[in-house]
Amino acid sequence: MNETKRVEITWPGLGITVAAQLDERNPALAQCLWDALPYRSLQGHALVAGYHLYHVAPVHSLLHAPAEYRVDRRTVPDGTLFCSRLQHLGIKYGELTEPMTATPVGQVAEEDLDALIQAGRDVWNAVYTTKEPVIAEVRRAGQDSGHVLPRLPIGDPQLNELVKDVHAETERIWLDPPRELVALHEGRIPSGAGSYETVLTTLLFVNGETRPLGYSCYGGLVRAALDGMPMPWLRQMTRQLAATPAEFLGYCGLDTLWDFTQRLLSGLERLDSHEDFISVMAHMALYCNCLGGWNLHLFPWQAGESLRVVREPA
């Protein structure tokens, strides 16, 4: 165990703080997280897998940092911390049902597990019912809280302006809900999206397109570039993967995302280095992952209250 990497995860709005220690199971991931501290983020909760907290960490390198040690999340102790290529810091606090491999980076202190469970319940209530945002703060033990959203350098001036704008917008919506998403969830959709004037259907499709755009499209493009995929192929894959979902999301009301995407696509031929390509795609990934986090928080999950899992008799 690395005795120097002690962290605190606090939810000031809940009045709860837990201590944790990063370890050497996945040292590269742990170091990425450690180097990014302190930061703040909207706290989310798993909606399918079970008793699991996660939030988007403002750490570009989580998209590609190597992970040597993998586990089935269901089998590890409560309080296990994970970092993932979805740019998540996750914390297991109870039973999980999803058979997913994950990359552990640390452990919440045994004496703080009851507080962690209470935080999990409170966050679930916020995500599922009240819609009051819960902000998580992650910091090195004994140090002050704070927050900086990192910006990666871009050599091309035109694309540097795009990244500047994407970074500024990501910073603006990091802890405050995007106005476009709020309007969408309130049923104010200028395009009229939503057959027979429905809103829930549109919200469902927006959620379903936004998450893979960040997780799979932009995150995947970063990893493909780091794996050495030639630039012409990377540019072609970007056109194939990004354009259609972004155009649909623009139709549904996410005009800023669609504007960024059009600027990106029009400047693709200017991207002639893997370094610049990685920087641009990493910023798009973080922006989309931030949108996805707010989507999951704002979505009216309580609309499905009457739908419950049927337990077959033993």
UniProtKB/TrEMBL annotation:
Record-given protein name: Cucumopine synthase C-terminal helical bundle domain-containing protein
Lineage of producing organism: Bacteria, Bacillati, Actinomycetota, Actinomycetes, Streptosporangiales
Database matches in InterPro entries: Cucumopine_C
Pfam families (UniProt xref): Cucumopine_C
Limits of the Cucumopine synthase C-terminal helical bundle domain: 160-298
